[in-house]
């Protein structure tokens, strides 16, 4: 009777412990994920930071998925050892009723722990889902940031090209203006030199004309004086002739 009761209770305990083990392994992996993601993500960070965070999320999710089997096997070993310890402790009980009561108490404890684990698992699963959604959002924003950066780089290159063309055009116009200014300056200097030469020649001609005028004026004055003197002489001769003629008569 005692042996039959013990055997009939062991499968129930094994099922409960296996279910608890699965929930515990899932919650443990989810908690490890959320501990890594516990810091809030700021979407306004740089693209490198966002890419690093997204890569870390991917690594954590993949690591949790790959480590589920190992954790489950490890938990199974620990749970089997704990079950063995419980069964060994029940050997000290004398009656099947005491053993059944102990198993019921253990089963109730496991059910309570399983309920807590289910609640924690749901919360953790919700947090993991939220983290994955945030990761997807961050990836989208990162792609947008990369696209925006690519467009900005293209615009910067185009702007640099336009600035270079404008600078070359400005230098060309400045050179043309400088050449034109030098040409006009040379023409102006040549014109001034020609004007100075003409003025010098005119000054020399004017001086020569002045000297000629003074010479002609002096000659004309001499001629006039000689003419007046001749007139006086002629007048005196005429008067003398008239006097002689008058005396003869």
TrEMBL record:
Keyword Coiled coil: yes
Keyword Coiled coil: yes
InterPro entries the record matches: Taxilin_fam
UniProt keywords, alphabetically: Coiled coil
Cited Pfam families: Taxilin
Region feature Disordered, mapped onto this chain: 1-44
Coiled coil: 107-194
A GO MF term: syntaxin binding
Protein family (similarity comment): Belongs to the taxilin family.
PANTHER family: GH01188P, TAXILIN
Protein's UniProt name: Alpha-taxilin
